[in-house]
Amino acid sequence: MSARTIDSTDGRLTVEPRGEHLVAACFTAMASPCEVLLPAIDRPAALRLGTLVAQEAWRIEKKFSRYRADSVTARIHANAGTAIDVDPETASLIDFAGQCFQISDGLFDITSGILRQAWKFDGSDRLPESKAIERLLPLIGFDKLQWRSPRLLLPAGMELDFGGIGKEYAVDRAYDVLAADRKEPFLINFGGDLRANRAPVHGAWQVGIERPDTDREATMILELEQGALATSGDSRRYLLKDGVRFGHILDPRTGWPVAGAPRSVTVAASSCTEAGLLATLALLHGNRARELLEREGVRYWLVQ
Amino acid sequence: MQLKPKISPAKTAGTRRRLMAASCALLSAGAARSQEASAAPAGSGLLEDWSVDSALAYYHEDGRVQAIEPVVNVSKIFADGQSLSFNATFDALSGASPNGALPSHSAQTFTSPSGKAAHAYTIAPGQLPADPRYSDTRFAAGGNWTLPLTRADQLSVGAKFSVEDDFVSGTVDASIAHDFNHKNTTLSFGLFNEYDSLHPVGDTPVPGSDFASLVRTGGKSKDGVGALLGVTQVMTRTWLSEFNLSVDRFTGYLNDPYKITSIIDSAGNPTGYEFESRPDQRTRKSAYWENRVAWTPQLSTALSLRHMSDDWAVRSDTAQLHLRWSWSNREQYIEPSFRWYRQTAADFYTPFILDTARQSTGFESADSRLGAFRALTYGVKYAHKLAGLGTRTESEFSVRAEYYQQTFNEQVPVPAGLQGLDLFPGLKAILVQFGYRF
Prior knowledge:
The structure holds 2 protein chains of 2 kinds. By secondary structure, chain A is α+β, with helices and mostly antiparallel strands. Helix content of chain A is 30%, strand content 27%. In chain A, the strands form 4 sheets. Chain A has a 9-stranded antiparallel sheet with strand order 1-2-3-4-8-9-12-15-16. A 3-stranded antiparallel sheet of chain A has the order 5-7-6, with no helix packed on it. Chain A has a two-stranded antiparallel ribbon with strand order 10-11. In chain A, a hairpin with a 2-residue loop joins β3 and β4. The longest helix of chain A is centred in the first third of the chain and has 22 residues, at 43-64. The N and C termini of chain A lie far apart (54 Å). Chain B is built from 1 helix and 23 strands. The model of chain B is unreliable at 1-12 and 37-46 (pLDDT under 50). Classes of the chains: A alpha+beta, B mainly beta. Chains A and B meet through β2, β3, α1, α3 and α5 of A and α1, β9, β12, β13 and β16 of B.
């Protein structure tokens, strides 16, 4: 009876009031603050719903993390050069990545993470040598994989990185879990990538999106009733050489940063995965980001 | 400039449409799989999804008993809203336990069955008589299962048992909670039933019998039933109020089989002792009110008040205040607490029996827990969240210390022979507890 509080932490999940009418279940996953926003309900109910979402987020993080020795990613890397069978979920993610590779003419490529070996975006002026990049280029290209679901052969030396889609995918998966359980309004927010089922009783969801302006961090407030928002871009990751700013968005086909990429792009779509991909693709289009977004008729917010 | 790539934007204007189709394929495949998966959940690692709360406590009464108590509690909230929890406690208690007799200006010798075997002990003049070889071990375990019945109703059932060297106790309980008023109000109703069985060392004394003549019977039992009615109300988003009424009734052998009462002559000299004799039923009623308020994200308080009264004329009041102050993004908090308690004596409580009044066959007990006293408890707890273990993102270490001080306020006229003796020494105790939750 008495073990119910409105302001205390409970292990891995925190439940706290948010404004007048909302309560948030908060946790950390994929190195991001994550939360589920719900209309004010009692703490056990909020904890239970938060647990559903957190378990799904942690499951996906654990499964696809580059940093865990027991992840699917680690298993794929450990078996580079030999054919292995992957589980259905991994298979559908690889299928999806393959489609994105095609749709984007090779701009979106989950094998491009290896460029991290050459590029360290630490704010310094240390550009990699062209040779270092050229050595890596043969190891990049989704079309170099031998992929026939569920059998994968990753050529030796190549890497797969699901990081570019993992967080958005996790939002959508967690959304499905919660939507199956609950008809009342909710909003899932994993570090700025978010999705809501419908508007709360007291108007739309107010969403703060970090706005990476040059000098100061500001937040722009967007109103969302339902659907997903995803943001790509990070103004803090760049190199500066001879007055030229090299952003961290790399073209996998050249190994070099995309010229004129916006600082950040936020896109609205029906699913978070779709929104995330559109935002990433826009960044990869560099100074033609706005052109792409306009042509595709996307709702977007762009910070140059 | 080195940036030489010539990027051709995706030629087709159908980029979005094709991405939407690909996303749909990915997500619908996931939804289908999760339905299969939920039919056969994979359990990897015994404690993987359970949260574990463990603690080790050390309790020390000044000049009396001490105890070491490890506690573990594991719990899990399932995806369908059910929750399950189990707990286990082990106590090892040892030291000197007051037997109820009064101090005297002369030495007193007692032959006691308490402890592992009958033994005799002598108490020096002026000292409070206590069995110096008191020891007991207790193991207790319990479980609780909470099950949502509808969106607004929740059923909870539990069972617990505890075993001591000379005592076995079992309790079952059930409660139902109903949410209404947009889940801002919760009404709950619960029932419990407890059954205890006593097998004191050297058998159970007959209540009121002479300590020296050892008139004893076999094992005894008592049982209790109780009910609780509670309402929890969210007053504002930062204020939660809870009000409970409860009543319980115990019947059977309600004596402490090791407690005796001094019989003194008119001069105050002990002439003998007799076992305590309590009524064989007791009905208690209590009211409890608690308010939790989060003043700021960093500061919250919990204030609770309780009033209890029973048909033995014991009335007690408790006021307790907890203050929690957290900092560095709530990774650390410190929680000072203060508790004030007062009770009146049972109507049959007496620190001694006058020889001349010996004929009365009424109830009597010199057990100080039935006397009138006040108690203050000062406590502080500090907790620090740490990095998680394995898949757990968080764990918490805590340390708690409490100081308890009990003072008696007896207004009994004392015979001349007992003047100058500390008849009602209070009690001072400390508790230190280390906890780890993951």
